[in-house]
Design a protein that fits this description.
Elements: E1 6-10, H1 14-27, E2 36-41, H2 43-55, E3 65-69, H3 85-91, E4 93-97, E5 100-106, E6 111-116, E7 119-124, E8 130-136, E9 139-147, E10 149-153, H4 161-164, E11 176-182, E12 193-196, E13 201-206, E14 213-217, E15 220-222, E16 225-232, E17 238-242, H5 248-255
Parallel strand pairs: 1-2, 2-3, 3-17
Antiparallel strand pairs: 4-17, 5-6, 5-16, 7-10, 7-14, 8-9, 8-13, 10-11, 11-12, 13-16, 14-15
Length: about 260
């Protein structure tokens, strides 16, 4: 597949904006005729770009994205270099991602849907701990979890918030999702679960006004939820490009052996 018609996008960081101007001057910018996107920034910028693709005009035929790190974190990015960009793009390896689709119903009965590349999280909104009931494929698995929250992470997101909450790192092609509690109080010994990627997870927020709960799909928040249903959206495929040997699956594997 040709990758010589590039459109460049960058975060608002001054360094990324300066790089944007230099790269456009050197390689041009194909705009709407591009066959690849080069994103300049950090992981937050990459997630924003991926959401723009999923929710914009390119949703039906998303272009592959090659990120170059100009931010603080760069797990989803390649090292920044201005030389030989066309060669790097031509030999880049593709990692394919499927997001999670969240369908949240508020206590007022409103329905909100959103996509998440990293994770869908539920959080307590006040000093009161959340109480959550967990169903997997319409079967109740946990009647009551008292906690600060709960998240369902993709393999791509397993090294993000999920890892900070002591969840497992997931290989990209493992075909599983991580269901991880956040500061669980009862049951104390429950440390989460690994679920098949086709599982449908439904979480009920118990406690009403006393224990309000928010649901967040990446950075899209819905407050005062009564029930959240989450499943992998297999119809949406996102393509990230990485330098040879640095594909996302390899990075996730390497992270498991980090000191």
């Amino acid at each position: 597949m040709a990758r010589d018609r590039i459109t460049f996008i960058a975060s608002s960081a001054p360094e990324a904006q300066a790089s944007l101007q230099r790269l456009r001057h050197r390689y041009g910018d194909a705009g709407g005729n591009a066959d690849v996107i080069v994103a300049l920034g950090g992981d937050g910028h990459m997630l924003s770009c991926l959401h723009d693709i999923m929710e914009g005009d390119l949703a039906d035929n998303p272009l592959p994205i090659y990120g170059m790190n100009q931010g603080t974190l760069g797990f989803l990015m390649n090292p920044y270099a201005e030389d030989d960009l066309l060669l790097r793009l031509s030999v880049a390896e593709t990692s394919r991602l499927h997001p999670l689709r969240m369908k949240a119903r508020t206590r007022q009965g409103r329905i909100h849907e959103a996509l998440a590349i990293n994770e869908v999280s539920l959080f307590r909104e006040t000093h009161q701990a959340a109480k959550l009931r967990i169903f997997v494929d319409n079967r109740m698995r946990l009647e009551s979890l008292t906690c600060d929250g709960l998240l369902l992470a993709t393999p791509a997101g397993s090294t993000a918030y999920n890892l900070s909450a002591h969840g497992p790192i997931l290989p990209l092609n493992a075909g599983v999702l991580a269901l991880t509690p956040i500061s669980a109080f009862r049951p104390r010994r429950w440390r989460g679960a690994l679920l098949h990627h086709e599982a449908v997870v439904r979480i009920e927020a118990l406690g009403g006004e006393k224990r309000p709960v928010s649901a967040v799909a990446d950075n899209n928040e819905v407050r005062d939820v009564a029930e959240v249903e989450i499943e992998e959206d297999r119809e949406t495929t996102l393509k990230l490009l990485f330098d040879p040997g640095g594909a996302l699956g390899e990075r996730i594997l390497t992270e498991q052996f980090a000191p």
